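DATA SHEET
Item: assembly model
Revision: 1
Owner: S.N.
Input lines:
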Amino acid sequence: MRTEMHLCEQCAIEQGIAAKTQISINELLSSLLASQPSDDELFGPSEPDATCPHCGFTLEQFRRQGVLGCPRDYEVFEKALAPLIEKAHNGATSHRGKVPIRTPQQTKKQMELANLRQQLDAAVRAEDYELAAKLRDKINQMES
Amino acid sequence: MKLTDISSDINEWFSGAGPLAEIVISSRIRLARNLAGYKFLSRCSNAEKAEILQKLKDVLMALDLGDQVFYISVDKTSTLNRNFLVERHLISRHHAFGKGPRGAVIARREFFTAMINEEDHLRLQVLKAGCQLSACAKQIDHIDSMIDQKVEYAFSPRYGYLTACPTNLGTGIRVSVMLHLPALKMTGQIEKFLNATRDMNLAVRGLFGEGTEAASDLYQLSNQVTLGICELDIVRQFENTIIPEIVEYETAARNHLLSKQVDTLDDKISRAMALLQNAQLISSQEALFLLSHLRLGINMHDHMGASTPAIKRLCSLSRSSKADKDKGLSIATINRLFMLTLPAHLQLNHGKLLDSTDRDALRARIIRSALTQDV
């Protein structure tokens, strides 16, 4: 026998018919935090009691609130946050894109080189040797 | 400027104009930024929040945006005004109902908003009608660069723009499009679309957040990854791959309705017309649901030359209605009904707070008046 039901999304989820169709950023973060089997796997090795000397924030507070206390937390808790950042950003570990106007030329150059090296790795992995050769030449040119 | 100066009409991004607007209602880009030398908001006292607010407000109000700008003190304005700003997508719900000193600088034509002290010190937003992500990207980049000349952003060479939540790290960019996908819904393919977007690391939300997409067939699609991919690549991914594919699927579903399920299509449109023309009380959710079907009918007529019996009736209603007697019932009129009958819009335009039943009666009256000749 076939039964037709017209349900709103919420009811469908409650009855286990449809999966929840959207995940908010905070939910994503919470699920990443909650699903971790151990601190070391998601947060990386770190002292759980570590406190940021600049803002007094702790990893425990981050775990509860999902937001950090100050920009310096990224350095203070770097080892602990790196695996989480990598997971949230589909494996990415460094910035590509716009930089502020005040960024020194040397820093911009270093960032560009780091990006080119990542692209080179990706090209080699994808066996795109033509692109890899071009990237290698560009890197050599920038380094010389 | 008062909010009632803008509340009686729709904003540009919801006008129904713009490329691919029959499916892509609007394009939006947001950037998250924080000031160097300050803590993130979770650790700021109210005095520090007030200092950040003043500093950014001064910079933003002095920018040349090519439009008049106005400032709203979000923490001090009424709940009705806050809800109104959320309904118009000028500020987020998080900003509207957050804590502490916070404000918004808004362009008069509503293409730009800067939310100060939302989750980050600054959230910039550019909104345009239809599929115009490249134009949004260009404009928001220009505005961001103007602000960058006046303040120092928190930035690290490794992680890019530093944000309170690590999920926004890097570019701090959220690219999103609002899509109208009624045919995918009617043909039972919406779950496939939702699953595909999840596989592509995209987030899907309803018109006003969770749970509202079922009512309006409107879906906001946005990127989740902000680190390791540059702003332009994200925009290109949307414009060259994601949007064309979704437009193709929705168009195919509309064609399928016309060729194989015309009775289903006509039933939805006819029921929507009958209810909207006759209801004495109508909730916001029901109005969104029914107006969505009228929008589909008009778009199928205008863009695909569809003329099923129900679409013909819809179009003849159009020509005889007061609202569009010269040019036919337009998408702009449907969008106007869509927005102006939302709860905060209704109350602001009516000049007083109304209880739910009074709102439903007023909403029904406005819709009847727009869609029926002799009301």
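QC remark: Residues 19-26, 34-40 of chain A have pLDDT under 50 and may be disordered.
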